[in-house]
Each structure stands twice: as structure tokens, then as C-alpha cells.
Design brief:
Blueprint: E1 3-12, E2 31-40, E3 46-54, H1 58-68, H2 77-81, H3 84-92, H4 105-125, H5 130-136, H6 139-144, H7 157-166, H8 171-181, E4 183-191, H9 197-209, E5 214-218, H10 223-237, E6 241-245, H11 252-262, E7 267-271, H12 279-289, E8 293-296, H13 303-311, E9 317-318, H14 328-341, H15 354-368, E10 378-380, E11 394-395, E12 398-399, H16 413-418, H17 425-434
Parallel strand pairs: 4-5, 4-10, 5-6, 6-7, 7-8, 8-9
Antiparallel strand pairs: 1-2, 2-3, 4-12, 11-12
Helix pairs in contact: 1-4, 5-15, 8-15, 9-10, 11-12, 13-14
The structure holds magnesium ion (MG).
The site of magnesium ion (MG) has 5 residues, from loops.
């Protein structure tokens, strides 16, 4: 099968109008995506992928995807899957594009959208959901999909192979169990920073009634209001698990000071307490606020920074992101690094399509890498799922395991038309109203 064309769309949702998704750094975000479709010479099969972005700037990511087009179009799927790591390296190491990264920033988001579209295509051709394609690949093929450049000092291909082989034991039983029970989820929908107290309390009650045992709140506004909101949520939650997310707003010392105060509400973790690039800062915060755990990852730009966070014992929770890392290939590297260092992976989700993506990665991690659900929950945000052909489903606080072939990221044509920026109806109507 040959890839015959690539199209990319700028899709934006006006989520800022209700302050959905608002946090300490993103006060009025419009959840958006650079959305890629790979056409093939089989009219029945196309590969879909997206990179989640946040409003203005999506056009830059779209341009990044266009720059990658000549590296993908014209190749055969068999040629790509026969040398997955080589394919991945050809995208991140193109000598005329690499200067823009390397392996970080807009080009890495664009890489993720394209790489994930290839995996979607492969899974569809195999008639399997992505998690099952991955779980049924021989360990040698998983290792062959990973670019070990820059991480071999922490994890060699042979070690990765040993970890994957050891994890084969009991996989069939785990697969039956996870399909029956689903994967544990936590909700972020209740505690957006822009919501008033009444709305937060009502949403926490709703989350508990829906079967969630873990709730995450945004912090990093002014400390007095963080304390007030944390007290409200803790009172509603009782013994339930509360996580906090500062979205990078603090300096290192500010993070330590704030968490010494907010520690009163027994947070299970503090997420993104400071810059995602500050490896040593995370290590210092972690030491200072133990036993509160430190989590980060949604802005950790590649496997190399994750390696350093793990080597420095800087984090307790690895929050992989399906399209901040350079797509499935690099996620595999980070899952194995986390396994080697004994740190649980709790994927970042929400946004547009991130829940759809990461459910596959979490299930694969359970089946074939970590083999454990202990201290592991996947983020859930109940927004925008209606735009997907095979939306993620959470029931009683657990993700149902996806059964449709592919990576679950295909969006519905009417949604793509309605929210196309700037000409979709959702945007032209707003423009008209403003005028
Ligand atoms: Mg977060």
C-alpha cells in the first residue's frame, strides 16, 4: 500500500467562551488541532492523526506538517513498517528541518501528527485497535520501532528486549481482564481555574456520582483562592484522591512554598509545578515536598528529557503525551524508560483527541510493559468527544477498552467542516456576532 497524499487541516473549538480548559497559564484556551489525513492507493484506507494545540498558532503547526509531506508521500506502508525506527529518524533528522528543533517544539508536534497517522493506518490495515496491534507485535518489532539515539546510556535495545520478553508472562489473562474491567480514569473536568466555586462543587459531586475516585484541580492562581477551592473540593471528596496541577506557573521556590501550604489537603501529586525543561528544579521540589509526589510530562518535549527526569529521581509520575512526544515510536521509548526506573505512567489527556489516543497507550503499557495498574490512572476530560468517529468512553470511572480498528483519532467530516479555522461556521458566526 502506497501513501499517495497528505492533507492537513486547522481545526479549532471555541472552548474559551465557557472557560473550559482554563488553568494558571492558559486563561482562555481554544482547544485546537493540526489534523492530518494520509490518503493511500487503497480507497478504503486512510491514516488519521492530529497534534493537539491551543488556539492561535495552530497555523504554525499546520505549516510544520506541510514541511514533512515530501518525507511521507510516495512511501509504502510496508516500507515504513519494515524499518519503523528508520522512518521515525528520517522525519526528525531531515537536514533541512532539524534546525527548527531538534526533536522539540512545533516540528515535533507536526512529527507526532504524521507519525500517529501512519500508526493509525497500520492498525486499520491490520484490522486491530492500536493497543492490540502493539501488544501482538513481537518484542523485537517494538524495539525496532524505537530510536535509541541519546537514551542508550539509560536503556539499551537489549535491556528493552529483556523487559518486553519478561512482560509476556500473563499477557493473555491481563488482556481478558482489562477488556472486561476497563482502565482506571481520573477526571479534570471539575476543577478548571475559571469555574466559580458553586460550579466546582457541583461538578465534584457529579464526578463522585459517576464513579470517579480521583479528581484533579487546577492551582497556581493566588494562593488564598487555591486554599479556598482545595478546602471545598477536599470536603466534597472525603477520602477520595485529590491531585493538583499548576501548569508550570511557579518558580522552584514558589512551588515549594505553595505546596507546603496546599499539602494540608493531602494532594496525591502536584503536576507541572515549574518549567517542564527544569530537570534539576523538579528534583529539588520533589525532595522538599515529599511525600507529596511530583508529576510532569504533557510538555516534556522528548525521550531525552524524560530520561534525565528519571535519572535525576526528579518525578514520581511519568505523564506521557501522545502528540507532544514524537508519536507512538517515541512513546514506546518512554514507556520502557519508565518501566526500567520503576516509575508509573499516568498519561496526560483532555484537549482534543488526547483521551482517544492515550487509552491505547495505557492499555499497551499494562499488557506488555509495566504489567501493573498500581498507582496508575489515565486523565479524562469530558469535552469534545462527540466530534470523533470512535470516541473514548468512560463508565463508572474507567475507560472502556477501544475495539475499533485504528488509533481512534478519526474526526467526523461535519465537525471538521464546522470548526475549520477561520472559515468554518463556528468561527464565521462568532465573527458576525462581534461585528
Ligand atoms: Mg496538566
Amino acid at each position: 500500500m502506497r501513501i499517495t497524499g497528505l492533507t492537513v487541516a486547522d481545526v479549532r473549538f471555541p472552548t474559551s467562551r465557557a472557560l473550559d480548559g482554563s488553568d494558571a497559564m492558559h486563561r482562555s484556551p481554544d482547544y485546537s488541532a493540526a489534523y492530518v489525513v494520509l490518503a493511500t492507493d487503497d480507497p478504503e484506507l486512510s491514516g488519521h492523526g492530529l497534534a493537539f494545540t491551543n488556539g492561535r498558532g495552530t497555523e504554525v503547526c499546520v505549516a510544520g506538517v506541510r514541511a514533512l509531506e515530501p518525507l511521507v508521500v510516495g512511501r509504502t506502508l510496508e516500507g515504513i513498517t519494515g524499518d519503523m525506527a528508520g522512518f521515525w529518524r528520517s522525519l526528525v533528522s531531515d537536514d533541512q528541518l532539524r534546525w527548527l528543533g531538534p526533536e522539540k517544539g512545533v516540528m515535533h508536534l507536526a512529527t507526532a501528527a504524521v507519525v500517529n497517522a501512519v500508526w493509525d493506518l497500520w492498525a486499520k490495515q491490520s484490522r486491530l485497535p492500536l493497543w492490540q496491534l502493539l501488544a501482538h507485535l513481537p518484542p523485537e518489532e517494538i524495539v525496532a520501532a524505537i530510536d535509541f539515539r541519546y537514551i542508550e546510556d539509560a536503556l539499551s535495545p537489549d535491556e528493552a528486549l529483556d523487559l518486553l520478553r519478561a512482560a509476556r508472562t500473563g499477557r493473555e489473562a491481563r488482556e481478558l481482564q482489562i477488556v472486561a474491567d476497563g482502565y482506571p480514569a481520573y477526571t479534570t473536568s471539575a476543577g478548571w481555574l475559571g469555574y466559580d466555586d458553586e460550579k466546582v462543587v457541583a461538578l465534584v459531586r457529579e464526578a463522585l456520582a459517576d464513579g470517579f475516585q480521583h479528581v484533579k484541580m487546577k492551582v497556581g492562581g493566588d494562593l488564598a483562592s487555591d486554599v479556598r477551592r482545595a478546602a471545598l473540593i477536599r470536603a466534597e471528596l472525603g477520602d477520595g484522591v485529590l491531585m493538583m496541577d499548576a501548569n508550570q506557573v511557579w518558580n522552584v521556590d514558589e512551588a515549594v512554598a505553595a505546596m507546603r501550604v496546599l499539602g494540608e489537603f493531602d494532594p496525591w501529586w502536584i503536576e507541572e509545578p515549574t518549567s517542564p525543561d527544569d530537570v534539576l528544579g523538579h528534583a529539588r521540589i520533589r525532595q522538599a515536598i515529599a511525600p507529596i509526589r511530583v508529576a510532569t510530562g504533557e510538555h516534556v518535549q522528548n525521550r531525552i528529557v524524560f530520561k534525565q527526569l528519571l535519572q535525576s529521581e526528579a518525578i514520581d509520575v511519568v505523564q506521557i503525551d501522545a502528540c507532544r512526544l514524537g508519536g507512538v515510536n517515541e512513546v514506546l521509548a518512554v514507556l520502557l524508560l519508565a518501566r526500567k526506573f520503576g516509575v508509573p505512567v499516568c498519561p496526560h489527556a483532555g484537549g482534543v483527541g488526547l483521551c482517544e489516543y492515550v487509552q491505547h497507550l495505557a492499555v499497551f503499557d499494562y499488557l506488555s510493559v509495566s504489567c501493573s495498574l498500581e498507582n496508575r490512572v489515565v486523565e479524562w476530560v469530558d469535552h469534545l468527544h462527540e466530534h470523533f468517529r470512535y470516541p473514548a468512553v468512560v463508565e463508572h470511572g474507567r475507560y472502556r477498552v477501544p475495539r475499533d480498528a485504528g488509533y481512534s483519532i478519526e474526526m467526523l467530516p461535519p465537525s471538521l467542516a464546522e470548526y475549520a479555522f477561520p472559515d468554518g461556521h463556528a468561527w464565521t458566526v462568532a465573527e458576525a456576532a462581534l461585528a
